[in-house]
Amino acid sequence: MLNAPPNGLNTPENSASTLSNAVGAGGLGEAFDVIVVGAGAAGLYSALCLPSHYRVAVLSKEKISRSASKWAQGGLAAVVTPDDSTSLHVDDTLRAGAGLCDRDAVEFLVTEAAAAVSSLVDLGVAFDRDQGNLAVTLEAAHSRRRVVHAADITGRAIVTVLLERVLERSNILVFDQALALDVILDKEGHCSGVVCCRENTVSRLGASAVILGTGGGGQVFAKTTNPALSTGDGVAIAHRSGATLRDLEFIQFHPTALMHPGAPHFLISEAVRGEGAHLVDHNGCRFAFDYHPKGELAPRDVVSRAVFNHLRNFAQAGTPQDCVWLDLRPIPQERLHYRFPNILDFCQKHGLDPENSPIPVAPAAHYWMGGIASDRHNQTSIPGLYAVGETASTGVHGANRLASNSLLECIVFGAQFQRLTLSPRSAPEAITPPQTPHIPQEQWTGDKNILEAIAQKLPQQVWEGAGISRNAQTLDQTLAQVKTWQNTFDELHLTQYISQLQRQGGAIAAASSLVRRWSDTRNLLAIARLILTSAQNRTESRGGHYREDYPESDHQWQTHTWIQGDHWWTAPTSAFSTIPTCSNNRF
């Protein structure tokens, strides 16, 4: 059973690590037993669950109060009521996953779900209550009301408490605005640390284990519910290190993101529809039932495609519309205020009145089902490198994630680090940082302009080429453009300059904002190519991957797509079995 993270604060003298004297800067001049990259629910909970005698560093590329997890509104799916059962939750998850879930992984997730919720309660998370019991709500594709929540700010409620607990631990050091660039591999191919940039200094930080919990990559799409920090860092870093990845073509597009001039693509939680809100077009028609018997409560991929196709029908008829409408008025007003205060407040701040008028919504990229292949203990194909949360591919989501299983996955799999045993490793070889070369200012300006141009054009290109509805022509064209941009990026003076510093360490002469733009663009280009190539290779439609030119599912494609380096192949191997390395290259 999953237990709450240990509360004892032990000193790191008993550490299994033999690391010492790692090259460091900007407050990161020490060696650690474990480095956690990412400070959302996955990273913070994993840090809390690590044995307390390990010395742990948590790296956040943003200020520590920001993370994608804080944007999560819905909640955690768990069997906590008498009319529900683990078998129903398993069946719902498998059905949503469109044939690509690993049953063992799903059963493990669902069996541990109630204990995961109890662990968060013990840590201090205040979930909503109904007559003393945990309150539950219904979300799409669930057969029972089983989503535990804290109003409509569940992610924020969880991350706030986790951060408070992390900051209480004497064995955990948190570093914000610390940009992880790559992981370090020793001569045996084991992960032995992280290359990090903080306060304009590149450092090589030694550790016996590195945990990647950096979230998703929604910023590769022009329309996304993800925050600006979601640039696919963990997947890109793992790919560069030679780790095995899986199922990167499967992107979940949330059907109801706010589409209002001057407002971000703010997520309007699926729980709103679970409580009774209706999707309507500009004529007031509840069109979702034309596409699926469950209407607004069909699986997310079905509802997103329904909206996409409905809007396309209007365009083809000569009456283009850029959104549909979500009508919250069927929800009793008292219930609306109780369950969705954050949504109401956000809409009202942007001049919308959900209590009296429907609000404009359309699909946006929301969640990445694929990721770094990892097993039940979060181990990747590289010894010493672990992945957790949206960054990982554990097998629980298949081709389409069931609503509110994502925060749950962070907690259930993060808890497995309670049993992490470290192997002693030597620190990376200490290298005297070279003298920073002088770079003419006009050279930085030219590189900055190129980076800004790529960063502006790339998301729109990927949205059009690999968004909700894909085909061979748009995939090919977009991939060719991404490769052109990649070549341009590789030739930048800044790319060559930072690549040298990654090997040697030292101060960076460029502005920190430029280094951040460089790193984000580097990772976005990498994951764009991975998504496009995976989508190009899968010649069928399944879950979050829809091909107009192959609109049906093909039983021969009821298999996973695996990636390592430049090799793509298919294999049905379970995530809880040995993670394969490149072989039987199919593509």
Summarize the entry for a quick read.
This protein is α+β, with helices and mostly antiparallel strands and 587 residues long.
Describe this structure in words.
Strand 22 (560-564) and strand 23 form a beta hairpin. The radius of gyration is 23 Å and the shape is globular. The two termini are 41 Å apart. Residues 1-27 have low confidence and may be disordered. It has a 5-stranded parallel β-sheet with strand order 8-2-1-12-19, covered by helices on one side. The protein is α+β, with helices and mostly antiparallel strands and 587 residues long. The chain contains 15 helices and 23 strands.
Regions with little confidence, pLDDT below 50 for 5+ residues: 1-27
Largest sheet: 5 strands, parallel
Distance between the termini: 41 Å
Rg from alpha-carbon coordinates:
23 Å
Count of separate DSSP helical elements? 15
The multimeric state of the shown protein is: single chain
Strand percent estimate: 15-25%
Helix percent band: 25-40%
Average predicted local confidence, pLDDT: 88
Strand order of the largest sheet: 8-2-1-12-19
Structural class: alpha+beta
- Which shape, going by the Cα principal axes? globular
Number of E-state strands: 23
